[in-house]
Write a structure and sequence with these properties.
Strand order of the largest sheet: 6-3-2-1-7-10-11
Mean pLDDT: 88
Distance between the termini: 18 Å
Structural class: alpha/beta
CATH topology: Rossmann fold
Shape: globular
Number of strands: 11
Largest sheet: 7 strands, mixed
Number of helices: 5
Oligomer: single chain
Length: 175
């Protein structure tokens, strides 16, 4: 899957990311959410920077994940500026703890969950750390994933701890 994603052209990436964002903004769970959780993406994941900007423009609170690899835990911290991010392992951008505040799971109206591959039943294959599956175990709100169509697979192995996503928005078809 990573190899397929690496073949996306810049034009496809920009267009498909834009389509995903526009479809997200039309979803009721987006409209009603005061606080959203979302990752700070990097190519070839669908672009989330435009979504974060739009959320700020709409007056929503935005929280992004901070991982603690030694404990295999993750928390979300409120982001009010891209200047509150730092590059950590593997070039990921995460919030600087001293500049951001922790947001609890019950404060979210919507969690936008990343993944590497998805199937139509709402199952997702993450990036291997299990951070989101563990975090989602304590979260009861709406979940949406954004995926390029090539990330959809007919089936995937299911583990007992895997959490289903409420909706997968794809470019251009929803699942």
């Amino acid at each position: 899957m990573k190899e397929k994603l690496s073949e996306i052209t810049k034009q496809e990436y920009e267009q498909w990311s834009y389509q995903l964002a526009q479809r997200l903004y039309n979803e009721e769970s987006w409209k009603k959410a005061d606080t959203i959780g979302i990752t700070v993406s990097r190519f070839p994941e669908p672009d989330t920077l435009q979504i974060i900007r739009r959320a700020w423009e709409e007056g929503k609170r935005v929280a992004v994940p901070k991982c603690f690899p030694a404990d295999r835990k993750m928390e979300f911290r409120r982001l009010t500026s891209f200047l509150e991010l730092e590059s950590v392992y593997y070039g990921l951008l995460e919030p600087i703890e001293a500049l951001t505040e922790k947001i609890e799971p019950e404060e979210f109206g919507l969690m936008i969950v990343p993944g590497l591959a998805y199937c139509s039943g709402g199952l997702r294959l993450g990036f291997g750390g299990g951070y989101y599956d563990r975090w989602l175990a304590g979260y009861g709100g709406d979940t949406i994933s954004l995926a390029f169509r090539m990330q959809m697979v007919p089936e995937m192995p299911v583990e007992p701890h895997d959490k289903k996503i409420d909706m997968i928005i794809t470019a251009p078809d929803d699942v």
